[in-house]
Structure formats: structure tokens, C-alpha cells
Amino acid sequence: MARRAPGMAMSLLAGEPGLVAILAGILGLLIGSFLNVVVYRLPRIMRRQWASDATEILLEPEIAAELQLPETLLSSLSAALKPLGELVQKLPVLSLSKPRSRCPSCGHAISALENIPIVSWLMLAGRCRACRCRISMRYPLVEGAVGLLFGLAALQFGATAQGAASLVLISLLVAMTLIDADTMLLPDALTLSLMWIGLLFSASGKGFVTLEASVVGAAVGYAAFWIIGTGFRVLRGMEGMGAGDYKLLAALGAWFGWTGLLPIVVLAAGVGSVVGITLILMRRATALTRLPFGVYLAPAGVIMLFFGPSLVALALPGVH
Description:
The protein is mainly alpha-helical.
């Protein structure tokens, strides 16, 4: 009987789409709360590692010799970088799980009752219980948005492998959207994980596209943006697109195949252009201002998840 329980549970859920959506929505609220932590901490973890790596690399004798650094400059670098490296090593451990979430203003440790998605923010009136400093409204908005997206995905795909995979896809894309908006970074830990999960999901035979379409989509996605980025750099002498964007489009190609790339890029470029032109008209940006493209590319992937076949039929009529 115990061995049949998971199958029986899945059968029960399959016949109750409303219940599946509610459960998925609740899970989304919890995942949204965790994603807020990821968005805040992952860039900081990366920067700490970069600082540590940079101090070690620049102090290597081989690097100094290769760069032909003058002895006076090398001494100055050594005097500055050694203390910096020691300070970085002495920083408290920071990971996605440790330490417990704290108020960035006063350091108050957030209790379990203060960490209930949306509810706690409302009960605290959007302020820290200890110092009464404001807590950004983005936290409950992210929790609510992820909960809503999880619920919609559950309604569309049900208690299936595609339904479970869609929740993973949504989680990673939401995290990348917010991190890119805050820091103009698309961490490899997220983009490459998304790509490999997409490829493996397609290889399982239960993905949104075949394995062949997935592999071609990943390759074409990366190559297309690499060509555009390299061409811009050669012609304009400046970076026009980061490598994180290449990897993100490759990841989306792995999930939706090569046919999904055009509608995704058109959606992202269209919204990005509107935002860019609006910022220029408002004099908050110029034609040379760098904008985080992942902020538009990742949400385009979410839209593709829900409306993929219709978008492909619209962008590539006659292609199946």
C-alpha cells in the first residue's frame, strides 16, 4: 500500500485542478520568500568571492612578471591588497541559508512569525518590528507574483512533469529578473543551471520540445547573441551585451527549442525598446546608457511558458 501512495496521490490531484492550483500557489508564496533571499544574497556572495580571487591573483609573482609591473607599483599593490584579502576572509559566513534573515538597518533577526509570506508584511505595516524602518514593498509583491504564477502554471499543466518543471523555470527566471535589475548581473549559477535542467528535461522525453530541438535551441540562442554582442563591440568599441544574456537565451532555447527563440527575443526587445525610449524622453537615460536586458528576456521566457505554441505560430507560421 505504501508503494502505491504516491501514484494514488497524483491521481487524486489530477482530478482536482483547483486543489492543485491552490497548493501550487501556497508553495509559490514560500518559494517567493526564499527568492527574495536569493536575490539579495547571491550577488553579495559572488562579490566576496571575486574580491578574494582578485587579491590572490594580483599578488601572484607570475602575474606581476607577465604584466611587467614596476617594483614600486607591486609594493603598493601588495600593501593594499593583503589587508583587503584578510578583511574579506574575516567576514561572517554568508550563504543562502546562513545567517538567518535580518533587518538590514538594525540587524534584528527575523523570527518565523515575522517571515510568513505577505501576511507578516501586512501585520507589521511594512516596518521592522525592532527599529520600525520601512521594509520594501517588493518583498510581498515578489511573494504574491510567484504564488500567482505557480497557481497559473498548475492550472495549465496540472500535476504533471511539465507542471513541476514549469515551477522550476518560473523560480529561476524571477530570480534572474530581479538580480539583473538590481546589479546588471546574470549569475552563472542560475543561467547555466537553467540551461542544463532544460536539456535534461527535454532528454527525459517529457519536455516542451524534443531533445534535438532543445540542443539546437541552446546552441542557436548562445550563438545569436554572441554574434550580436561581438559585432557591436567591434563596430562601436564598447560592450553592448553581456555574456550572461548569451547564456540566458541559450537556457531558454534549451527549454523551448530554436522555434521559441524568435518570439522570446521579439518580446524582450520590444518591451526593452519601449522602456529605453521612455527613459530617454524622461531624460533619465541616453542612447548610450546600458540597460539590463535580462530584465526583459527572463519575463519573455515566462510568457513563452504560458503562450508558447500561439507565439511560435504567430512568429513562424507554418513551422511546427
